[in-house]
Amino acid sequence: MNQETKFMLKRLAFYAFIFTVVAWIVIPIIISTLYGFALPKDYYDPKKVIPTSFTIKYVKTLLFTLGALDGIKNSVIVALITIAISFAFGIPAGYAVAKFIFPGKDTIKLSIVALRMFPIPVMAIPLVILYIKLNLIDTLLGVALAHTAMALPFVVLITSSIFAGVSTELEEAGMVFGLTRLGSFFRITLPLALPGLAAAAMFTFVMSWNEVFVASILTLSHRTLPAQILSIMAGASGGAAPDYYKFAAAFIMILPAITFIFFARKYLVTMWGITLK
Amino acid sequence: MVEVRLENLKKYFDKGRVKAVDGVNLTIKDGEFLVLLGPSGCGKTTTLRMIAGLETPTGGKIWFGERDVTYLPPKDRNISMVFQSYAVWPHMTVYDNIAFPLKIKKYPKDEIDKRVKWAAELLQIEELLDRYPAQLSGGQRQRVAVARAIVVEPDVLLMDEPLSNLDAKLRVTMRAEIKKLQTKLKVTTIYVTHDQVEAMTMGDRIAVMNKGKLLQVGPPTEVYLKPNSIFVATFIGAPEMNLLEVSVKEKDDSIILEGEGFEIPLSRDFKELLERYIDKTVVFGIRPEHMTIEGISSLEHVKRSTTIEGTVDFIEALGTDTIVHANIGSGQIIKVKLPGHIPLEVGSKVKIVIDLDNIHVFDKDTEKAII
Amino acid sequence: MKVKSSYIPYLLILPAFAYLLFFVGYPLVQALYTAFTQNGQFSLATVRKTFADPYFWEALKYTIALAGVIVPTQVGLALILALAVNRAFKGKDLTIYVLTIPLTISDVAAGLIWYSMLSPSGFLNKLLLKIGLINQPIYFFGYQYRHMEFLAIVLAELWRATSIVFVIILAGLQMISNEYLEAAEVFGADYWTRLRKIVIPLLKPSIQSALIIRTLFAMQIFGIVWILAGRDIPILAGEGFYRLTELKEYDVASIYALVIAGLSLLLGALYIKFMKAEYLEVRR
User: Fold this and answer.
1) By the CB < 8 Å criterion, does C17 face chain A?
2) For residue C282, which residues of chain B lie inside 8 Å, CB to CB?
3) ipTM associated with this complex
4) Total number of domains constituting chain C
5) Does residue C17 sit in the same domain as residue C151?
6) Do B80 and C186 touch (CB under 8 A)?
7) What residues make up the domain containing C233?
8) Is C123 inside a domain boundary?
9) What pTM was computed for the model?
């Protein structure tokens, strides 16, 4: 076997490997989506590996009769509030970390990362008692406040590296030509940081959208989508709903997340590289 | 200890549109210190990487002695390399860094220890052996990189601009040290740089490259005194050689170069060379250090000379030398380099003496040297 | 200009920092109080109650077992993937994007998706039936098939969470300067030697980060188990959830929460202790 054939075989093996991996990721998503739209008779037919007749009936029932639409509405509201509050607190902190030198900076950075590591159940379970006292139990605001706590460290770290990426000289030029520091921030730094901030917002949205434990504990009637789905579908042996509802639910849950990340995909690996430092 | 031969070496990128290295033929003698000199993008680093095996040639061959190494991977070529950013592995101590090539080649432990200490001593870094790279200065890291490169006895030693990241003073010291080291070890060395001072002081021979092509190869004095093209003439030597457009004319049975407002008589020996250029334009070149100013200083060993009149336009006082910018008419400025401090004033009229044994004439279109 | 300013940076950071401190500090204190006091006095009664419940020990066992199987496998897989992907090839960007899709999928959705793969009428069973490899569907769910449920959870988690490790390791891989590898190549090291002696040691910080992050999250595993196995496979977060929402036993739930926190702290500290990269610690 000469050099060329060896080389070709290696390439073939490599691409086969890549293909397998991609298929491993993508096939389950495709399958569950297909099954979500399939007619029960196709699903239960052992001879039909891939369903051929489709319906949107179950997605519809899920949305309207079983309350998934409300769940979606609630999730969106919670996510938006989370973004608003976490950005309101996080952006100033991120800017400070990026542009100032001050004693204790490293400790603060480290503790912010450490706080992110804090296990969520430990935060959520005692929070119930507090929320009951404050009348925040079973409110969307309550969930959003908890989500903000989870998202803040991420927002602070990401915005700090985004702002660090905006050359300080550009801000200084703004100040030389008449802007105050605050003015320079709003008219120069912020617009330049916008793409990165948009990506951060999308990630925060997805994080809140997907969060299930806290949302399930803190709400009863105003459930977010994951909390709702969990209560309907939980427990394979005692699951209340027939299988195809499960798949329809999966489809509804993953659709927004996948679309969002498609737009923010360039930032993914760079963001993790940044947080690592 | 090996002779390296490059045969019509080519490296093309982007489906042949970018010709990084375009047909280089070069033989580097056994034990020679050869400098590949050229501006950025000229192909010298790509050539070096092909010799290392880090790039595969698009065409041509590379020989190490009798071995055709063109397609051999680096590890089979018995080479060593000093990288521009040193590439000293941060997770290993200095000792382990230097020992690495020996460990890979499975030398016995006591032999490794002996050699590492020998290399460290040569580079004066014995006390640093158990430190990590993060604890060293740039200059120290560079010495580690060199120690690592010499610890195995390579057939060929390659260096890719190793001094460019050092500050000026350190660069001067290291230049001498590396050259002394190479003379002592007698290993065939190929050294890439864009700094012509480095090339002139270190190389046994200099190979000047531009745009993927090898322009001239020769010992430093030869490349300096007899450049074969405008590019080589202006790349070597600082300040740059003065270039003026002149016409070749016949006058009284000899040839002269006629410029705007001046004339340069040439010896009869050049008549043949310039015959076909009569009444045509050529490029006349003279180095700043091959001229002087009448009354200020004299070139003792100058046998034949001629004078041009000019007005002082600007003076650069460098301390050890002075560079006088003189306007010789119609806005043409030539630079004259004189030793010491020159008490001239801007605007004064001067007579510039040109050493006729060191003039150059280039073909205007091909840019090749005629004289 | 990095301004050496007096109080402005502190002012800017204060809201975020205080917010976080509250949402971490208060619950922690509240949990400790609820778990260790009865009628205002320090008491271990709750602790005893929790420990007496066999479900607690099952949950502890399964949480650790799941983590022990999933986390190392994920790190290994992610390492292979990152190394494979870190070169130029056609479709590289698309591949990386696809490999990061699971990052966006919640654990509940992942559980549901894998249900579609492994249910009695799911894709895997139908495929194998069609090819003729089996005559009867393989049952992954149901109390009597608990070991299969365990497998299903492992598969689903591998599918979902390997991406996180992959991204971390890939980022770390990209930070390794190519010159380090070229130097090793020049000095005689072949691919596997370069991998062992240069790449892996330089990846140690990334691998350590990934292990810590994944293990900590594995201690909190919830949605995916709840969907695929319900209480057939008890886990710490799940039992805490159940105690809180169904039985309203705040104190017992707090104990579960604290156990999770304690385990996380312990494992985190162990990782940091045993995976120190000495070359990063030294200073000039």
Assistant:
1) yes
2) 131-132, 134-135
3) 0.81
4) 2
5) no
6) yes
7) 55-109+142-282
8) no
9) 0.80
